[in-house]
Amino acid sequence: MNRKIGTILSYTLIMFEVLSALLLTPFIIRNLGQAEYGVYKLATAVNSYLLLFDLGIGNAVVKYVSKFRVENSLEQNRKFLGVVNIFYLMIAAITLIFGGILIAVFPKVFGNGLTKEQVILGQKLLCVIMIGSSVTLGTTAYGNVIIAYEKFCVSKGGAIVQIIVRICLTICALKFGLGSFGIVIANLIVTVLCRAYYVYYVFFRIQLRPVYKGVEFSFIKEIVIYSSLIFLQMIATQLNSSVDQVLLGALLPSSAVVIAVYGIGTQIVQYFQTIGLAFNDILMPGIVKLVEKKGTSSDITAEMVRIGRIVLIVTSIIWGGFLIYGKEFIVLWAGKENEEAYQVALILMTSYVFITAEAIGTQVLWAMNQHKEQAYLKFIIVILNIALTVILIKWNPIIGAAIGTFVSLMIGDVCVMNFIFYRKLKINIFQYYKNLFRGILPCLIVSLFVGQILQYTGLNGWVGLTIKALSMAVVYGILILFFGLNKYEKKFMFSIIRKSNKDL
Description:
This protein is mostly helical. It has helices at about 1-45, 55-70, 75-110, 115-140, 140-150, 150-175, 180-205, 215-250, 255-275, 280-290, 295-335, 340-370, 370-395, 395-425, 430-435, 440-455, 460-485, 485-504. Helix 2 runs antiparallel to helix 3 (about 75-110), helix 4 packs parallel to helix 7 and helix 10 (about 280-290) runs parallel beside helix 12 (about 340-370). The longest helix is centred in the N-terminal third of the chain and has 46 residues, at about 1-45. The protein is globular and about 65 Å long.
C-alpha cells in the first residue's frame, strides 16, 4: 500500500511541478528578459556540479537504512546515520570552498560569452545558489531516511508545499523588481525551512538519532565502495544533463540568449524525466527487500517489465503529444523567439522515453551491488558527449548540442545498459522489449494519427491547443484501457481508484 500511496503522491507532486513551470516560467522570462534568464540558467547549471559532492552516499542511505529495517536492526541504523551525518557536514563545508573557487574563475571561463555586467550577476547568483546547495547536502541524510522509512506523505507532501511557497516568493520577488537575485534568495529560504523540518521529523517523529561510537571500519569501507561507483554514475548523469549549457557559455560568443533558448528546451525535458522517474525513490526500499529475499532472475525481470510498462504508458503519450503540438506550445508558452527550444526538447525527450522505462534496472543493480561495470561504461560514454557537443555546436549551437547529448544517451543509457542487464541480471532483451511495448505501441500509433488529424481543425491559441491535446489524450486513454493494459495493470489502476474513492 505504501507504494500505491507513494505513487499517487509522486504524480501529484509532478502535477504541481509541471503546472508551476507552465505558469511561472513565462512570467520569469518576460520579467527577466532572455539575456538575464540565460545567465540565471547558466549559474544553476554550473552550481549543479556542486551537488556531485553527494558522492553517491545519498543512494546508500536509502539502501542501507532499508536493509537494516528489514533486519530490525535499530542500532545499526543509528550508527549508519552517525557516519553519513558526519560525512555530509564535511561535504557541506567543502561545497562552500569549491563554490568560492567557481565564483572566482567564473569571469575567466565565461567572460568570452557574457558581458561584464552579466558576469557579475552570474557570480552573485552562484553565491546564493551555492549556499542553498550546501544546506541541501548537509541534510541529505535526513531526507533519504524519510524515504527509506517509506514516509512518502512527508517527503512528497513536503516537496509540494515547497513548490507552492517557492512560487509565491518568486512572484513577490519579481513584482518588487528583485530580478533573478530575488528568485535565488526565495529558493534559499524555502530550502532552509524544508531541510530544518526533515531533521526535526527524523529526530522526533521517526525517533532515529545518530550514534557516533562503535562503528566498524569494514562497514565504512563497504559504504565507500558502494557509493563511489554510484558517484561515477552521478558524474556521468550530471555531465550529460548540463554540460551543453556550460560549453555553450564557454565557447560561443554572446551566448546568453542561446543558453536561454537551450535552457527552455532542457527544462521541459527535466520535467519529462521527473514524470518518468517518479517511481525511483518509492521503489528502492522494495527493490532492496526483493534482493535481500533472494529474488530470482525471473522475479527481477517481471518487476522490471511491470514497473517499466507503467512508466512507458505515461511517458509515451507525453512524448507523442509534444511531437505533434510541442512547437505550438513553445510559441504560446515562451514566445516565438524561443521556438528552437522545441527541437532541443524533442531530441532529448526521445532518448528519455527509453531511459526512464528502464530505470528500474539501475535500482536493481544498485541493490545487488552489481553496478561497477555500469559506472565505468557510462562515464566513458560522457566523454563522447563532450567531444560531439564541442564539434556540433560549431555547426549549429542549439541543435548540435542536443544531438551530441542524444547520441551519448542512447549509447550509454540504453545500448550499454541493455548489455549490462543481459550480463548481470540474465535478462532476455528481446523478450523484455516485446513485453515492455506490448499493447502500448499500437495505442500510441493510433493516437498520433488522431492527433495529426486534429491539427487540421483550425483550433488555435491556448484553448485550441488544450482541446486538441486533451482529445488526443482521451483517445489514447480509451485505447490503453481496452487494448493496452494487461491484467496486473488493470488491477493496479482500479485499486488506486478504489483507494481514492474510499479516502473521499
